[in-house]
Amino acid sequence: MRLAFEDGDELQIAAGADIRGVLARLQPIGPDTFAILSRADEDYVQTMMEKDGCVIEKREGRDDAHFRATRPSFAPPEKVKWWQFGKRPQNEYFTLAETEEVFASYADGREPPLFVQWVKMDVNNP
Q: Taking Cα atoms as reference points, which of 10, 32, 18, 21 lies closest to residue 106?
């Protein structure tokens, strides 16, 4: 798998253990605000560091399989438009350690950690 950073750096990732500590270079402002771990062009998990924490999304090969990570709740999740940048509730932010755990589970082909719930995004209807 390939781990790509905003500044153009790329690393080859063989297993989830290779993720530990690597995402520490992410910053809310600067040349490294996001990272993408991909199996293929349209099959990836990505994160962007914002001032409140990390936002995590994944895509499973096509437009209608694009998801955002939230913390599980008892209320049904609302659909989010792809352009709703900056309008995130607090349950969509994760710590760097949690983000690394999500990336590691993706790299290993495991289920995501229990603190993550995937919510489908509507990327085709701006």
A: 18
In eight-state DSSP terms, residue 112 is P
Count of other CB atoms within 10 angstroms of residue 52:
12
Q: Model pTM?
A: 0.85
Mean pLDDT across 11-39:
91
**How many angstroms separate the CA atoms of 112 and 69, rounded?**
10
Buried b (16+ CB within 10 A) or exposed e, 90-107: eebbbeeebbbbbbbbbb
| pLDDT band at residue 91 using 50, 70 and 90 as cut-offs | confident
